[in-house]
Task: inverse folding
């Protein structure tokens, strides 16, 4: 590598690194490209190559609905759960991140609990949460029985659910990522800013709102995206903790036990296109807002 | 006498207190949850694998009765797991008979009262006595007749002879064998032994659900003449060791391209040509075939490994919901659903009612093993067989009569799973 | 502001986070720990203290078996550790390069965000679907093999592209490199650019700057990324199962098989051991670099 003079505009190794990055992106998109091509599989084609003609047949099949699975409803559920998980993950991990910058009693224990939650095989966590809520159910039933509320007893199914156990299960998965990324964000974060703000008479809230937050905002957005993506795709932790309705990935997993045609790829292509559009609109809006503010 | 009196007294007092409490709780409950009282519509949560959860069935049932079916589709493993760990999360379970040995002793299911099931007397003899057309079929493993009756509604014990209470009301069943790609193998296959034939090195696959996979392996061991099991469905530790050893040696020699766990994996392995011979399920063979790829569900001289699934009712279901569940089961056995399943290549529990809802030519193709007199279509209109074709394995009687063993849960299950893990790690 | 009220508010700030873990992780974990010491039969867990689950795991580990191998448990842990190490190494090198590129070569914050989004989008197609698509990509008749055969690089399709240790590592790298990039990138963004100029002015070569300035200053990110990758690989069973053709052993896979067979106490005991082993690795890593010291 040439030892050329350090140019503040370009660090060295631009071209090889650009090449690595481009290859990496292609690699990331590899399975997606396959999905994309195969979703246009001909009417007689299957989930694998060769392509037997090109058609929009499987998108049509998708529009008709895939077997028993109400994809739209599951998608809505997963989206909602993902958004809630995202918001809580951002809020709780930023708060906890701030806390870790100060003297925090039990901080060491909390850190290892966080790491343990990452390590523990998801299926075990899921079973544990399932077990816990079953004990809770029994408790509830016992109480209801004691009060003789038969009609309630009959209609009371379980306390397992999307926004109880499943939300909890997702949080034990997303929060560790949130917190540890906050560690990276606050790593050597210059305290001088906060001290200066405090010296100028800012309240802790003002300091956070007007000094710290703008500095960490992009990373916070990143944590939100992480939280959403992790929740969106989560299967193992949800499996025993979801109760009676399924999230999208669980429905899809169930679906793959019957649907073995490219309609499933059509679904993949469609969700990807939708995410592109959503992201495009969001970024355009953000840029427009930023420009307007200027 | 004295003692009886006191008991009566306490019961009375107890009742009074209860009524009082009920009143209070009722008011409280009504105040807190007014919606629940207003709600009359019944929704049944149906837990099972997606294979059996057909939208058409739920729609037809709703049209007929107004009761809604909410499908909860999970993998085979998860059905049993949820039945054991979360019995509150469903109102109706569709599970395999061999899993009963795990579920029934937990007391999470209650016996289904056959007096409330109109067609219970017409359920095929394969389930009740283990006979097809008056002939006994193989009963190694967890044959349904061993676990279908319970001693009582709340019993956790299987009854040795028929009783009023059934653990599961059968829905679908079939007999599994090897699936092959005749276009890539190019010679006749007639024995389970071929699965481990070095000719197919790197092109064979086996099912990675230990309790089922080991049965397939046992069929191979017997076919190769290595050993004859007294009961493949209930091996001794020594027999397990021997079976796993055979598998490990094959694996080390590179026999297996992959092991499969889900339906779609087996379809993809076969359709993509990664694998040319593997243990398979009949709808998976159909799925490969609808893609225009040659695939045969090959009858073998050693016979089939059979499985059966049925409806169970969790003990937590009472009142109106329980009525709804019984209504569904009765409706299911009434013929429409049976015909629907038969057209997919499964077999239904009450043949007589299903026959009345099928065309004569369909019945002849699917059940009597006769050549199709016109194109055979699946319920959603795909052509499954052209005129003149016959079904793999022939008629119901030849096929079901050829059962060698049933999917099973062994007494030495724990040891078996441990050894299976050794096979996977080898 | 004095130290005391600060700490109190710190405790309050950490409370929601801690509560989630107390209620939804520690209690289930305690249940699991308890269950790991319970007996079981085919259908139920028997609440009676026993060590049999732990004994069963290490059964036969004192000697070699008939094939001259160590026992399954050791073999599996060894395989899992090796896999973790390989994946860690690849994701670290790749992740570091990409993070470096994004942090030092892409200077506009907007473009950085855009590129991050570009890297995230593939993960919004459900993993269930993506997993299926590896077969047509890497299989015998897959895209890659077709391209290789077509280009005359090989004369018949390469078998080990799929259902092998290679494909497992590849899929892990695919899934987890982002988890390495994000923390390293964040660490790099905190590096004062004037330090780099100073190093350059002092005559340091690009390599020297990299090794002596950038690497040490992004070590927190490296450690955090390593924690992510190592823990996820060690607990995984889905990727190993699908990509390894269900033929490659990992601790997660064994636990999954055991839970499927409803041998929960055995699975629980295995999970406890896995937790201890992995915690030891992480503890070792944080000994190397205390990621909380420079907060």
Result:
């Amino acid at each position: 590598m040439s030892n050329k003079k350090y140019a503040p505009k370009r660090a060295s190794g631009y071209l090889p690194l650009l090449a690595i990055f481009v290859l990496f992106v292609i690699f990331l998109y590899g399975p997606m490209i396959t999905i994309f091509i195969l979703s246009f599989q001909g009417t007689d084609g299957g989930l694998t190559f060769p392509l037997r003609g090109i058609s929009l047949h499987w998108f049509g099949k998708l529009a008709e609905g895939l077997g028993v699975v109400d994809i739209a409803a599951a998608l809505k559920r997963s989206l909602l759960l993902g958004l809630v998980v995202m918001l809580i993950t951002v809020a709780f991990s930023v708060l906890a991140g701030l806390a870790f910058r100060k003297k925090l009693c039990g901080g060491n224990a909390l850190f290892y609990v966080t790491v343990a939650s990452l390590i523990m095989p998801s299926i075990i966590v899921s079973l544990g949460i399932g077990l816990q809520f079953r004990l809770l159910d029994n408790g509830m039933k016992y109480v209801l029985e004691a009060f003789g509320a038969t009609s309630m007893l009959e209609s009371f199914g379980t306390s397992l659910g999307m926004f109880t156990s499943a939300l909890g299960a997702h949080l034990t998965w997303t929060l560790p990522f949130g917190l540890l990324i906050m560690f990276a964000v606050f790593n050597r974060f210059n305290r001088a800013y906060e001290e200066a703000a405090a010296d100028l008479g800012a309240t802790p809230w003002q300091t956070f709102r007007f000094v710290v937050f703008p500095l960490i905002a992009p990373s916070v957005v990143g944590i939100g995206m992480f939280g959403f993506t992790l929740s969106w795709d989560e299967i193992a932790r949800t499996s025993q903790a979801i109760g009676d309705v399924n999230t999208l990935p669980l429905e899809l997993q169930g679906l793959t036990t019957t649907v073995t045609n490219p309609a499933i790829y059509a679904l993949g292509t469609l969700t990807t296109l939708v995410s592109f559009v959503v992201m495009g609109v969001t970024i355009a809006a953000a840029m427009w807002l930023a420009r307007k503010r200027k | 006498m004295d003692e009886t009196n006191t008991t009566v007294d306490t019961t009375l007092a107890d009742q009074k207190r209860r009524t009082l409490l009920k009143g209070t709780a009722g008011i409280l409950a009504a105040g807190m949850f007014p919606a629940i009282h207003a709600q009359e519509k019944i929704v049944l949560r149906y837990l099972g694998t997606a294979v059996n959860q057909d939208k058409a069935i739920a729609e037809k049932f709703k049209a007929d009765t107004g009761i809604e079916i909410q499908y909860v589709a999970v993998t085979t493993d998860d059905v049993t797991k949820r039945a054991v760990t979360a019995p509150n999360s469903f109102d109706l379970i569709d599970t395999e008979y061999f899993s009963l040995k795990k579920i029934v002793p937990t007391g999470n299911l209650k016996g289904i009262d056959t007096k409330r099931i109109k067609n219970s007397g017409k359920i095929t003899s394969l389930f009740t006595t283990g006979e097809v057309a008056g002939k006994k079929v193989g009963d190694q493993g967890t044959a349904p007749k061993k676990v279908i009756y319970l001693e009582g509604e709340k019993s956790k014990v299987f009854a040795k002879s028929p009783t009023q209470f059934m653990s599961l009301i059968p829905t679908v069943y079939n007999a599994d064998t090897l699936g092959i790609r005749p276009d890539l193998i190019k010679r006749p296959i007639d024995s389970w032994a071929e699965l481990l034939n070095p000719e197919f090195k790197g092109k064979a696959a086996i099912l990675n659900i230990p309790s089922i996979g080991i049965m397939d392996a046992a069929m191979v061991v017997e076919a190769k003449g290595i050993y004859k099991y007294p009961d493949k469905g209930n091996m001794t530790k020594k027999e397990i060791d021997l079976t796993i050893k055979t598998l490990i040696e094959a694996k080390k020699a590179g026999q297996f391209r992959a092991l499969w766990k889900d339906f779609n994996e087996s379809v993809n392995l076969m359709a993509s040509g990664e694998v040319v011979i593997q243990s398979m399920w009949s709808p998976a063979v159909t799925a490969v075939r609808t893609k225009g790829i040659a695939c045969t569900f090959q009858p073998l001289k050693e016979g089939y490994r059979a499985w059966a699934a049925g409806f169970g009712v969790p003990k937590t279901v009472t009142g109106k919901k329980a009525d709804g569940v019984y209504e569904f089961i009765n409706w299911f056995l009434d013929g429409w659903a049976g015909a629907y399943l038969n057209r997919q290549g499964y077999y239904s529990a009450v043949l007589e009612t299903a026959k009345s809802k099928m065309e004569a030519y369909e019945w002849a193709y699917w059940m009597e093993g006769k050549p199709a007199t016109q194109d055979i279509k699946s319920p959603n209109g795909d052509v499954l067989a052209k005129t003149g074709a016959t079904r793999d394995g022939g008629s119901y009687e030849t096929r079901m009569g050829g059962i060698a063993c049933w999917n099973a849960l062994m007494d030495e299950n724990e040891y078996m799973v441990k050894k299976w893990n050794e096979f996977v790690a080898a | 502001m004095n130290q005391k009220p600060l700490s109190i508010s710190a405790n309050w700030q950490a409370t929601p986070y801690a509560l989630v873990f107390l209620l939804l992780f520690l209690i289930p974990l305690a249940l699991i720990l308890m269950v790991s010491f319970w007996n079981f039969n085919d259908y139920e867990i028997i609440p009676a203290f026993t060590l049999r689950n732990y004994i069963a795991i290490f059964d036969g580990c004192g000697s070699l078996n008939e094939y001259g191998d160590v026992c399954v448990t050791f073999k599996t842990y060894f395989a899992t550790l090796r896999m973790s190490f390989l994946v860690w190494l690849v994701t670290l090198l790749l992740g570091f390069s990409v993070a470096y590129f994004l942090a030092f070569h892409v200077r506009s914050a907007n473009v950085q965000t855009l590129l991050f989004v570009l890297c995230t989008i593939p993960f919004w197609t459900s993993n269930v679907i993506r997993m299926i698509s590896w077969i047509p990509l890497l299989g015998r008749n897959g895209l890659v093999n077709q391209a290789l055969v077509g280009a005359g690089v090989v004369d018949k399709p390469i078998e080990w592209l799929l259902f092998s240790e290679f494909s497992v590592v590849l899929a892990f790298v695919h899934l987890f490199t982002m988890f390495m990039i994000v923390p390293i990138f964040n660490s790099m963004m905190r590096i004062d650019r004037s330090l780099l100029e100073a190093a350059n002015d002092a005559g340091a070569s690009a390599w020297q700057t990299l090794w002596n300035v950038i690497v040490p200053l992004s070590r927190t990110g490296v450690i955090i990324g390593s924690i992510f990758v190592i823990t996820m690989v060690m607990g995984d069973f889905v990727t190993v199962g699908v990509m390894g053709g269900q033929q490659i052993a990992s601790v997660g896979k064994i636990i999954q098989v055991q839970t499927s067979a409803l041998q929960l106490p055995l699975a629980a005991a295995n999970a406890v051991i896995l937790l201890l082993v992995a915690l030891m690795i992480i503890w070792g890593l944080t000994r190397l670099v205390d990621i909380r010291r420079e907060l």
The CA atoms of residues 283 and 290 of chain C lie 10 Å apart.
